[in-house]
Amino acid sequence: MSRADERLLDRSLRYLLEARYALNPSPGADPDEAYGRILLDQIDQALKVAIDTEDKESFTQLETGWQEIPEETDAWLPSNDSPSGRLISHRRVLSFGLAMWVLHLVRSDTDPISEFRSVALRALSQRFSDVEDVLDIYDAATEHDEGERTPWTNWFLQELPEGEAHMIPTSSELLVTALLLAVAWTRPQQAEELRPRDWFDWRAEEIEQTLDRLGDESERWAPVLGSSTSENAAIPVADAQVEDWRARIDRLREQLDAGRKGWKEKERQAVRADEIDPAKERELVQGLLAFAKKRRVIRQVMKVQGAMKDLPAKPEEHEELAARSWVPKRMLVADHTVLGIDMAGRDLARPSLDAEAKQLLDALSGAQPTASDGDEDSFISALTDAIAEMTDSDLPPTLLLLPISWRLRQALGMAPVWGTPDMAGNDLVPAIAADQFAGTFLDVPALDIPQVPADLAWLISLPAAATFIEWPSQENSGIRVEVEEYTAESAATFLDQHPDVAGELSREEAINFLQENVMISRFLAWKIEAGKSEAARSLKLPESLIFSN
Amino acid sequence: MLPAGLDRTLSGNATVADVPTSFSARDRQRVRRAFKVGRTRDWRDEQDLVAQIDRLHGIALSAIREHQASEWREIGTLYEFVLLALPKEAKALNLPFTGAIAAPGAFGFGPLQRIEGNLFKELDTALELNDAELVDAISYLPGKVAREAGRLGAYPVVRSMLRLYPAMYSLVRSRRR
Fold first, then answer.
1. What phi and psi values does residue A356 have, to the nearest 5 degrees?
2. How far is A271 from chain B (nearest CA, A)?
3. Which ipTM was obtained for this model?
């Protein structure tokens, strides 16, 4: 190394560190935060060079030197929102990033950990005071990285070939660093539990896998970050280190697991205490009503075929039919971001749509069964005859209700399942639902829906066979929706009235369940009444035309 | 108050600056002189400055090759003057040294980056020639300018100067390997 090289090595580090003397504009004044951040970022960059080139002396000089920018005092807390506090926090985040970088280099290498990297890791790990401190800085580091306030993405990119797309591993590398440093600070006999954090839950699988790996690599990490002594003289230090390292991992695993449960419980408590957000409730109900209104194909067919009766109000003697479902309340509280509320609404609409087909089939239960010989030809011939007979007896079929079966469609000469037949202009078919029809058979429009039993076809003459009776509903959807949430008191009252709701849950668990869910009730604002039994016929399908999964 | 902002296109009768009524006639005159409103954007001054800096760089390299540390220091003083001139003016007018003032077009990519690059090349040359005294002189300047720029609130200059140090350290480490 030339004299000039030596001089530059010394001056580049010394002048960089001496720049800290301009940090405080006057004695006792707050540090100049913007200046301090720039200075810390440059020292961080120099430390990264020291790590990359394994320059122990310079690393130590810089790492020790930047502890004074600004000096940490006993009064400092991570929450200290002052220029000094924010600068210290920034420095500690950068320090965490350097630990991540050393760790990244170690893990990219199968060789034993070099002396420099051991020293660097140990020095950086010693800048934390306990596991909570490590996790606090990890949280801050993640936040800084997401806000693109760190150089880490560039560090990884510099290692990768240009002109290609790459996955930047910063997020997972930060987690591995947090867990490794946390193991280093865990003591097996430590009784305290950790403060619950959200990522203990949503990154639980990754945490578990990382701890497993750190356990498998105990021989590698224990000499660097584990204890340096053996309490039992009979056990060699190396063996004791590994044993202690594994015990630390076990303890940390327990603490993280308890923290995860704690977080979930905290979240449940918050949901129980929260009130439903009216905007989210509206979104759910609107999704439900809009879907229900659009998909009422049975009602639409019966209306267009004159089999419908409108009432001004629900008949007094009629007992409303309702479908009830529990929906997690967290979906509807303001603090939670939930995607797909409208989709949940659609799911809630399905039972009422199924009910239309079910009630129609119930109304047709007295229909005359028509036999055939069990093969396709005789089925088609029986169907043809039934149409002719019904037409002759002044009950012309207006609807052929079929189960879903592509073979059946094919046998009846209808459009394939994926096709859309041209039903335009057919007076028996509602224009709004024309695309849901399978086609026509001898001019009778055919509708195949999943609610029809797989082995039966129905030939129906409307309006004689059944009547759809309807009274006002929300947005003409055919249903009325009620959303009910529970407080601890109303949940207890509800349980007293409906003890079976608790199932196998204890009373306390059941009350919590009720507070963490809302009940969505959909009341049907219609009913289908049976008409003349001879106005419908059922036909048994031959085995070859039955669709089976 | 600068209702129009710097580096903007103005319509006729636009207000360029609001000053308190307490300003004396002399203060008003000073403020008036601080603005230049032209028909079209004029880059010539900046180009002249960059050309001057390039000439300085040529002289600096000659001084380094001849191991003339004192001559280089004089050039270093000129670099310092250029780097701090606009921040000082901004400070005198109580304007933050950010945005249009520090961004490319006014004083961004141009003189500042030019000098930063020149200093690094000059240092590299001194290193090649194994001139420890020149290395000392050149490496001292960025820290000195950064401290003064920090006092003026000229953070782009602080960053530009301080980032030379990790670059210098990286340079010497890469030579060692």
1. -60, -50
2. 46
3. 0.75
**B1 Cβ contact list (under 8 Å, min separation 6):** B17, B18, B19
Nearest-CB residue to A1 (from B135, B147, B176)? B176
Residues of chain B in contact with residue A38, where contact means CB-CB under 8 angstroms, are: 155, 158-159, 162
| pTM for this entry | 0.70
Mean pLDDT, chain B, integer: 82
Check B165 against A21: CB less than 8 A apart.
no
Q: Which residues of chain A have a CB within 8 Å of the CB of B177?
A: 53
In 3D space, the residue among B163, B171, B66 whose CA is nearest the CA of residue B127 turns out to be: B171
Q: Considering all CA atoms of chain B, what is the largest pairwise distance in Å, rounded to the nearest integer?
A: 65
**Residue A96, class by beta-carbon neighbours within 10 Å (0-12 exposed, 13-18 middle, 19+ buried)?**
buried
Question: Nearest CA of chain A to the CA of B145: how many Å?
Answer: 10
Cα-Cα-Cα-Cα dihedral sign, residues A44, A45, A49, A55: negative
Q: Assess whether pLDDT exceeds 80 at residue B55.
A: yes
> Encoding tokens for residue A334?
């303001």
Which residues on chain B are in Cβ contact (under 8 Å) with A32?
150
B56 CB neighbour count, 10 Å cutoff:
19
- How many contacts (CB atoms, under 8 Å) link A and B? 107
Q: Which residues of B touch A21 (CB under 8 A)?
A: 147
* Residue pLDDT, tens place only, B10-20: 666 677 777 77
% of chain A residues with pLDDT over 70: 95
Residue type, A192: E
Question: What is the SS3 assignment for A187?
Answer: coil
Sequence-distant (≥ 6) Cβ neighbours of residue B112 within 8 angstroms: B83, B156, B157, B160
